[in-house]
């Protein structure tokens, strides 16, 4: 019994440590689910798997061994299904951008690690913990140095009596190194304001800054909005 208690302690302790390390990375970068959330998710998953694999101890010898049926895979399926609701809670959409996907994935993999630690698969669990930490930290640096495209939600409003035609607007956008991926039109304020609504694409975020400076200096534009996503 002491050996079994030590094994349970090691499984829960390593699960807590792995979840804490992943959570610290998330907390450091200011993500909504951080140190405490990941630690609790990993420990809870490990605990539930321990409960599943130690069903014989529930009844305290009141039932014969032949009457006890253990199926830890069903518990694992339930854990991974339930953790999806927690992961969905950290995902939100702001403009054209979806935030929280990486944090949701880290919660999901943390739960999977808890399952591995709970059943005593320490070697693969430790390997995946290291891989997860490398993915979250090192790959962030790699992403920041890769060529990428930037998008912006752009709205220009003109007084109805001095609207620039579409060709002029498109030329102005192209001059600043941006491409228009989509465009819509709106007549607002009882027909007194005309708006172009666009999604812009560029390979250099500074192009959007220069475009904003140009729009700010314009004498014909009533107002504009340039939301970088």
From TrEMBL:
<keyword id="KW-1133">Transmembrane helix</keyword>
<feature type="transmembrane region" description="Helical">
    <location>
        <begin position="75"/>
        <end position="92"/>
    </location>
</feature>
<feature type="domain" description="MgtC/SapB/SrpB/YhiD N-terminal">
    <location>
        <begin position="12"/>
        <end position="144"/>
    </location>
</feature>
<dbReference type="Pfam" id="PF02308">
    <property type="entry name" value="MgtC"/>
</dbReference>
<feature type="transmembrane region" description="Helical">
    <location>
        <begin position="6"/>
        <end position="24"/>
    </location>
</feature>
<keyword id="KW-0472">Membrane</keyword>
<feature type="transmembrane region" description="Helical">
    <location>
        <begin position="125"/>
        <end position="142"/>
    </location>
</feature>
<protein>
    <recommendedName>
        <fullName>Protein MgtC</fullName>
    </recommendedName>
</protein>
<keyword id="KW-0997">Cell inner membrane</keyword>
<keyword id="KW-0812">Transmembrane</keyword>
<dbReference type="GO" id="GO:0005886">
    <property type="term" value="C:plasma membrane"/>
</dbReference>
<keyword id="KW-1003">Cell membrane</keyword>
<feature type="transmembrane region" description="Helical">
    <location>
        <begin position="36"/>
        <end position="55"/>
    </location>
</feature>
<comment type="similarity">
    <text>Belongs to the MgtC/SapB family.</text>
</comment>
<dbReference type="InterPro" id="IPR003416">
    <property type="entry name" value="MgtC/SapB/SrpB/YhiD_fam"/>
</dbReference>
<dbReference type="InterPro" id="IPR049177">
    <property type="entry name" value="MgtC_SapB_SrpB_YhiD_N"/>
</dbReference>
């Amino acid at each position: 019994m002491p050996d079994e208690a030590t094994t349970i302690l090691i499984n829960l302790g390593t699960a807590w440590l792995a979840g804490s390390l992943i959570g610290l990375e998330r907390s450091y970068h200011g993500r909504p689910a951080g140190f405490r959330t990941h630690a609790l998710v990993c420990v809870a998953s490990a605990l539930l798997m321990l409960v599943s694999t130690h069903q014989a101890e529930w009844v305290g010898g009141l039932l014969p061994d032949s009457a006890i049926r253990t199926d830890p895979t069903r518990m694992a399926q339930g854990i991974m299904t339930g953790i999806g609701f927690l992961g969905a809670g950290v995902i939100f959409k702001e403009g054209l951008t979806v935030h929280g996907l990486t944090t949701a994935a880290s919660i999901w993999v943390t739960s999977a690690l808890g399952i591995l630690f709970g059943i005593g698969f320490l070697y693969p669990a430790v390997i995946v913990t290291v891989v997860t930490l490398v993915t979250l930290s090192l790959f962030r640096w790699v992403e920041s140095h890769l060529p990428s495209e930037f998008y912006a939600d752009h709205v220009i409003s003109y007084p109805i009596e001095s609207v620039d035609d579409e060709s002029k607007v498109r030329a102005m956008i192209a001059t600043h190194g941006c491409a228009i991926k989509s465009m819509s039109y709106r007549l607002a304020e009882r027909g007194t304001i005309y708006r172009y609504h666009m999604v812009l694409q560029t390979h250099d975020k500074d192009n959007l800054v220069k475009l904003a400076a140009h729009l700010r200096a314009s004498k014909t534009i009533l107002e504009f909005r340039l939301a970088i996503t």
